[in-house]
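Help! Submission page says 'invalid entity' but I think these are all valid:
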Amino acid sequence: MTTPPPGPHEPSFQDDPLARAWREHWGRTVALLLGQFARPDLVEDAVAEAFASAAQRWPQDGVPDSPGAWLLTAARRRVVDRLRAEAVHRRKEPLMVVDARTRAAASATDPSAAAQDEHLPDERLRLIFTCCHPALAAEARVALTLRFVIGLDVPEIARLMLVRPTTMAARITRAKKRLTASGIPFAVPPAGRLDERLDVVATVLYLVFTAGYHPQPGAEPLRVDLGDEAIRLTRVLDSLLPGRGVVRALLALMLLQHSRRDARLGPDGRLVLLPDQDRSRWQRTEIDEALRLLRALPRTTGQGEEYRLQALVAAEHATAPSAASTRWDVIVDHYADLEELTDSPVVRLARAVAAAEVDGPDAGLALLDGLEARLPDHHRLEAVRAELAWQAGRPQAAEAGFLRALDLVPGGPEHEHLTERLAALRTEDLASDASPG
Amino acid sequence: MKFVVLLHQDEQIWRDASPTEREEYYRRHDAFAQVATRTGSTILAGEALAEVETATTVRRRGEQVSVTEGPFAETAEQLGGFYLVEAPHLDAVIEAVRELPEYTVEIRPAIDVA
């Protein structure tokens, strides 16, 4: 068992050649070797071992001129060794379906960096579409993408997806088996099917992105690098399949959310909510790029429109000079469109918050009526109710709401935030009780 | 790669189908065959099955053999037919299956036991 070298998530290795190689070559190497050998089980281990070997050798021998070619050669040698060993044991594993042209291209790879770059983007695109195949369970798609395309290790993926490492290991093994056994091809779908398949890919990339932003108990509250990776892959998708609305809208949405990364955590590591964030720490160039993308995007339908509307909401926040000058009336309209499109109770919740900003807390509370049936045991629903009740001057109802929310929240920064709000409410309540009248 | 394509539907739908609707079914099966051929697959076999009430279930447990009337499992949708297809990959099968009538279709790769 080898210990995987540090991935790009280790901030201290951000500029380390190995971390850069990981970012640039993990997915490519996996994709190339899958194209050649069609054995997802062997390929994954071989690439992990090649990186482990690089972690030992590069600090001593120096970084090779072409790290990608070095890693590919090392990993390929390991696959070939394993295949030889298997031939001795006459063990036969099922092969993935790889078309003859892909295989020829992959095995003919000239290990010079220039020759690789010519067809590598295609290889990685194939890998993304394969990992996001609709015949895989939704959670398997995300797990496979994180493992094969981005190269996170199993315990990390388990932590991000809130399951035990053993569960995640079993899930990935099952997904790899299913890739080969059910005949899922290593291929980009034909033009006529690209758009419906792109929706699935976009959903997975957005899940990868948001996985880095979900504060998990016991984990680092932010995984900025996952946001970087998801944006990078979305850019790859956009450059290889230009002009797709869903990809552009997703890119705009991610850029806007990501632009706030430096302002999301306070110096004490606590979550800073949007209205309290220091807006001068938002990344202006990313916001501007997103706004340019959004201006060029026409109204569309389905997944693309969902991301476009979410991005428009994010754009309102990004362009408001201060929290107080946010155009909440525009945001309410976007959320109303989004709710009509998705019929999502989570969107209704967000719309209620925006409506309260425009028409007061009771307008927000009215939109929340009966929502618990569609969002059972949802701590954010209780938290929003509590905040609105507080604003409406009903501290008892607010306290009960915060207590219910605290019961439901799993822990981590959101738990801390709710505890603080409850304490603030109680302090205010005491103060007003003590004051005469 | 060999795939078995299992076609399920509530039998009542076929019983109630008008002659025009049945024509549409046949047309869709023809389209399935055309798309399959065009996308590099070969249909090795295919049959429509008699209604499930004609089924006979045979179970052997040890030396005990029981023969009973009816299907192995009662379900809302019944197996009504199948195809055996040699296809380059799953996506090629799905592409052809899209052409079929409103069935619930299960696609299963066949494994080589030889």
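Support: the input was valid. A stray whitespace character was the problem, and the output above is from the cleaned input. Residues 326-424 of chain A form a domain with the Serine Threonine Protein Phosphatase 5, Tetratricopeptide repeat fold (CATH 1.25.40.10).
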